[in-house]
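Quick question, first post here. What does this chain look like in 3D?
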Amino acid sequence: MITSFDDPRVELAQSLLGEVRVLPDPSLPHRLLRLSDTDGHEFVAKQHSARDRYFHELHAYEAWGAHLKGHAPDLVGRRDSTYTLLLTAVPGVRVDTVSPGSPEEERSHYEAGRVLGKLHHATSVRRSGAVGTELSQRLRDWIARADQAALLSEAERDHLSHSAAVLANTRMDSAVCHLDYQPRNWILGASFWVCDFEHMRRDARVRDFTRLEFRRWQAAPHLRTAFFAGYGARLNESEQRLLESFGAVEAVTALVRGHEKGDLALSAHGRTVLSRLA
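> Answer (accepted):
Ran it through. Tokens below.
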């Protein structure tokens, strides 16, 4: 069916492709819309609600998309006035829907490591203190938000503050990082694809492993092994300690966001990570 309803995502696609059809896809978040042109080529249109997130993701595609060529959607078009992007659709299934313990799950972590390694290697900058100082302040800001909501005990606050001090005094490698690198943003098919670049920026390289470490690998260490086999190098002792400090950021952000959104599962995740680090 040819669409005619008033939707900025459809309007952008029509302006670039001509007639389009909306393809029902309940697996997509509400901001995304799958469409096809008259030749059957499929696309995804994404509309941001916030200007900063839109321009952040647009910059990521334009500045760093080439480093992920063949493993990320291509940017087809944009409309700044409605914060809307048109991207090529990539074939496959979201990795968070594959069976736990399956060969597909292990393969996806190997490929995820390989692709992230390409991005990090192409954009890496050797150790400096600037990244640690910035991350330390960011952690202190999250601690303040948690304090305002009365989410922390005195002992928990002291532990998180210690992690902030460690970050402030640590020199670390930086690279362009995805910063939401986990199976819900991976597509597995004949190839491996990464999507959702709205958080991407230059950051501490090791930080890109945090969500996998604290959300996936604790219960499935073989996936960590597969990932770093693809990445090409395991973490050394100092990098592993640094990853534990980033666990403090993971814990307090989950606590605050879980509280603000009424998300009990996210709050519980924050508590679990915090108890592990204490």
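The radius of gyration is 20 Å.
The chain has two domains: 8-88, 93-277.
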